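Dear Dr. H.,

I hope your travels went smoothly. While you were away I took the liberty of generating a structure for the chain from your last submission, since the lab meeting agenda had it listed for discussion. I wanted you to have the full record in hand beforehand rather than looking at slides cold. The sequence, exactly as received, is reproduced here:
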Amino acid sequence: KQELAEEAEQDESIHGGGDQSSSLLDAILGLFVGTAHAQETWTDTVTFTLPPDASAEIKLVMAEGDVAEYAWVAEGGRINFDLHAHGGGQSIDYDRGRGASSGEGSIDAPFAGEHGWFWRNRDDADVTVTLQLRGEYSALKQIN
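The corresponding predicted structure, in token form, is as follows:
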């Protein structure tokens, strides 16, 4: 018993007191959980190509209070966009851009309705847009 007590005392002086194995384990698990959260998959991905001067609309059907996250990228050129919503006699403009090549953020629906994008290709070449989505919405509509 005395030998075990001496070993325990030596271990404590070398490694410190307390249960460090559980704090190390907590740190490792926290790293994995954080990484998994950062790599959450997108629920929907929509890709379409717009010839010069063509346009497209993508709408999310959302209830009041719903939140959806998005990320989009335009390849082959730049694009104009208008992120807006309408429904129940209400409307809102979230964001607009000219000559953009990407965008990301979230939509916090202040009212029920269709929330989404209108894109127009003002370049001289085809532009391919890829939109990734996740969050709270009941339907995804593509209007070309």
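Two observations you may find useful: The two ends are 80 Å apart (CA to CA). Residues 22 and 28 are 10 Å apart (CA to CA).

With kind regards,
E. W.
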